From TrEMBL:
Feature: compositional bias, Basic and acidic residues: 316-338
Binding note for cofactor: Binds 1 Fe cation per subunit.
Location of region: Disordered: 313-338
Record-stated family: Belongs to the pirin family.
Listed cofactors: Fe cation
Entries under InterPro entries matching the protein: Pirin (IPR012093), Pirin_C_dom (IPR008778), Pirin_N_dom (IPR003829), RmlC-like_jellyroll (IPR014710), RmlC_Cupin_sf (IPR011051)
Species of provenance: Marinomonas spartinae
Sequence ranges assigned to domain Pirin C-terminal in this UniProt record: 221-308
Protein name: Quercetin 2,3-dioxygenase
Ligand binding (Fe cation): 73, 75, 117, 119
Gene3D superfamilies per UniProt: Jelly Rolls
Length: 338
C-alpha cells in the first residue's frame, strides 16, 4: 500500500490540475506533409473547421481553418506555460511580441491585466510528416498580481537544464527542469510576477524520462504542496510499490520521496507541483479572476479596449517559413537560441 500516492485519476485530453495550476492540455498530432503555405497537404473535407478536436487521421485543426492551432483570443489573470517537445508554434500578441518556438522550447507568458495572442502550428516540412507534441499549462496569479503588465518570455531548449541520474544498473533517467530546482540545479528565470518566481512557493514543472528497466527516486519537497505526476507515455511502471499504467495521474504527498520503477518501454512523466495560492477563483473561458465583479470587468475591458488591439495582418498569424526559431519582444529586442 502506497503512503505517497493519495489519488489515481485517468488522463483524458484535459488533465486534472490543482491550485496553483488551473489547466493542463496535452496535444499530440501526427500532421501530414506540408504545403508551401504551412498548411496540411491533405483534404480538410469532412472536418468541423473552427472546432476540429476529433483527431481524424491522428491530427486536429483545433480552431484553425487553414493552419492548425488557435487564432487570436484574449486572456487575463493567469499565465500560460507552453512546452513544445516536437513541432513548432508561431506566437503573436497584442503587445507586439512574436516568435517561433519548438523542438524542446518553452514559452512562458504572463497575461496579467490582459493580452490577446494567437498560437498557430506551422507545418514546415513539405517532404515528411510534421508531428506535434506539446503541453499547455495554466498557472494562476495571486490577486496582488492579477493586473500586472503582460510579459512574454522564452526558455530555449538549449538553455533549459537537464538533470541525469544513473541507477545501480546503469539506466539513466533524465529530468528537464522547466520550473523549480532539483538538487543544485535551478530552472531558468520565469517572469518576475509569476507565483513561481518566489522560491518559497516551491513551484516545479519537470519532464521526466525513465528508460526501460530504469529506477529513479523523486526527492521529497516541503509539506503542504499540491504535487501531481502525469504518466503520459510508455507502458507500465511501479510507483511507490503500486503497479500503474500509462495515461494515469497520481496526486502525491509532497513531503515523501517517491520511487519510479519502469517495467515497460521508455516511460515519460510530467510533474506539476506548487504551494496553493489559496484564493477564491472565478473563471469564465479565458479570464481567471477572484470575484464575479472582476470577471465582469474583464469582459467589459476587453470589449472596450481589445487589450491593445491586434497589430498583425492575420488572426491566425504565421511567420515567414524561413525564419527559424526566434523571439521578438515588445521592447524590440530580438533573440534566437544559441
Amino acid at each position: 500500500m502506497s503512503s505517497a500516492i493519495l489519488k489515481r485519476l485517468p488522463l483524458q485530453m484535459f488533465w486534472p490540475t490543482f491550485d496553483p495550476f488551473l489547466f493542463c492540455a496535452f496535444h499530440k498530432d501526427r500532421y501530414p506533409k506540408a504545403t508551401a503555405e504551412m498548411e496540411p497537404a491533405a483534404s480538410l473535407q469532412g472536418r468541423p473547421l473552427g472546432q476540429d478536436f476529433h483527431g481524424i487521421d491522428g491530427w486536429r485543426m483545433y480552431h484553425g481553418r487553414k493552419v492548425p492551432g488557435f487564432p487570436v483570443h484574449p486572456h487575463r489573470g493567469f499565465e500560460t506555460v507552453t512546452i513544445v517537445n516536437q513541432g513548432f508554434v508561431d506566437h503573436a500578441d497584442s503587445i507586439g511580441a512574436a516568435g517561433r518556438y519548438g523542438q524542446g522550447d518553452t514559452q512562458w507568458m504572463t497575461a496579467g491585466s490582459g493580452v490577446q495572442h494567437s498560437e498557430m502550428f506551422p507545418l514546415l516540412d513539405e517532404e515528411n510528416e510534421n508531428p506535434l507534441e506539446l503541453f499547455q499549462v495554466w498557472l494562476n496569479l495571486p490577486a496582488k498580481n492579477k493586473m500586472v503588465p503582460p510579459h512574454f518570455g522564452m526558455l530555449w531548449n538549449e538553455d533549459t537544464p537537464i538533470v541525469k541520474h544513473q541507477d545501480a544498473n546503469g539506466a539513466e533517467t533524465s529530468v528537464k527542469i522547466i520550473a523549480g530546482e532539483l538538487g543544485s540545479v535551478t530552472a531558468l528565470d520565469c517572469p518576475p510576477d509569476s507565483w513561481a518566481a518566489d522560491k518559497n512557493n516551491d513551484v516545479a514543472i519537470w519532464l521526466i524520462d525513465v528508460p526501460e528497466t530504469g529506477l529513479w527516486i523523486m526527492p521529497k519537497a516541503q509539506s503542504g504542496l499540491n504535487r501531481t505526476l502525469y504518466f503520459f507515455e510508455g507502458g507500465s511502471a511501479v510507483i511507490d510499490g503500486v503497479e500503474v499504467s500509462v495515461n494515469e495521474a497520481f496526486v502525491l504527498k509532497s513531503d515523501e520521496a517517491l520511487s519510479i520503477q519502469n517495467t515497460g518501454k521508455k516511460a515519460r512523466f510530467l510533474l506539476l507541483q506548487g504551494k496553493p495560492i489559496g484564493e477564491h477563483v472565478e473563471q469564465h473561458g479565458p479570464f481567471v479572476m477572484n470575484t464575479r465583479q472582476e470577471l465582469q470587468k474583464a469582459f467589459h475591458d476587453y470589449q472596450r479596449t481589445q487589450f491593445g488591439g491586434w497589430p498583425w495582418p492575420r488572426n491566425d498569424q504565421v511567420h515567414d517559413k524561413t525564419k527559424g526559431r526566434f523571439a521578438h519582444h515588445a521592447d524590440k529586442l530580438d533573440e534566437r537560441p544559441a
